[in-house]
Design brief:
Keywords: DNA-binding, Transcription, Transcription regulation. The chain has ten helices and nine strands. The protein is of the alpha+beta class. The chain has two domains: about 120 residues, Arc Repressor Mutant, subunit A; about 150 residues, 3-Layer(aba) Sandwich (Aminopeptidase).
Length: about 300
């Protein structure tokens, strides 16, 4: 998708959301507060020692518009202004008891209205909306919630799908997918032989890494991949660090992995983690052109 295509979709989403807010404004607001007044009152209710400047910045409101609104709220006995002890030119805003009660009443009106609004939606649809809201907000604010956690057996399908997508996008043959599926299938028969970790961003699974003890008591790293849409967030580094912490905890003396020379980002991480390239084998098994199967090893010093 080009930036221009995204911008057109983004503008369309903004129109949709503006219309939705207009609908909510008409249905839920007006009797106690307008939607704009409700936002200002909520900001004061949920924070301490706020000035008009703070509210203007937090809500991205025009100072003149905000000043008129605050004058109205003060006149109606909803807020009070107290001189700021640290800045005599400024005032600290707080709600009166009447203002607090009106805010709570307005909150219940909105909650009741939204409960009715959500009646046609299934639990699964509400969960998807919740996930979509979290992803949009955190991504737009560049405040992503990143989590590295142990995978469960039901996550094996995700790991297989992730690798299928990643390697297909990189132009690899189906043979590499078969190889990965076979290794995962073997792991499901003996899950106690190793561990898999997942990377999640805003609750969405986007990466994986694993390590397995094979039949000769050697430990091999597998299934290291991150969805291309979530790269440059440091997820690969965090996944590998988590795995190496496991290696340290288990007091393992030696681990190894096989990779492909073209996967330079992963190779750079291996180098920084103390792995050494010990073997390279040319092959056309994975792609039309020749690549190098590489063995990287880590040994405890």
């Amino acid at each position: 998708m080009t930036n221009l295509q995204f911008i057109d979709k983004f503008r369309g989403f903004n129109r949709f959301y503006a219309n939705l807010l207009g609908k909510f404004d008409f249905k839920f607001y007006g009797e106690l507060f307008t939607i704009g007044e409700a936002n200002v009152v909520a900001e004061i209710y949920n924070n301490h020692a706020l000035s008009a400047k703070d509210i203007s910045e937090n809500l991205t409101m025009n100072k003149g518009q905000l000043s008129k609104m605050l004058n109205k709220l003060e006149k109606n006995g909803i807020i009070i202004r107290v001189p700021d002890k640290e800045d005599k030119r400024s005032f600290i805003l707080s709600l009166t008891e009447k203002g607090k009660q009106m805010y709570l009443e307005q909150t219940e009106i909105v909650r009741a209205g939204l409960r009715e609004e959500l009646v046609p939606y299934s639990k699964q649809e509400i969960q998807r909306l919740d996930c979509a809201m979290t992803v949009f907000k955190n991504t737009y604010e560049k405040n992503n919630l990143i989590e590295i956690c142990e995978a469960k057996i039901q996550d094996i399908g995700f790991v297989a799908d992730l690798h299928s997508r990643v390697y297909s996008e990189l132009g690899y043959h189906y043979a590499i997918q078969t190889h990965i599926l076979n290794s995962l299938s073997h792991y499901t028969e003996q899950p106690h032989s190793g561990k898999i970790w997942l990377a999640k961003v805003n609750g969405v699974r986007v990466g994986s890494i694993g390590i397995v003890e094979n039949d000769t008591a050697d430990w091999e790293i597998h299934w290291f991949a991150v969805d291309a849409k979530y790269q440059h967030l440091g997820l690969g580094k965090q996944l590998l660090e988590t795995l190496m912490n496991f290696v340290a905890t288990k007091q393992l003396l030696h681990v190894y992995l096989w990779t492909i020379n073209e996967l330079t980002q992963a190779r750079n991480l291996y180098v920084r983690s103390g792995f050494t390239l010990t073997e390279a084998i040319p092959t056309k098994k994975w792609k039309e052109h020749e690549v190098m199967d590489e063995k990287w090893e880590w040994k405890h010093n």
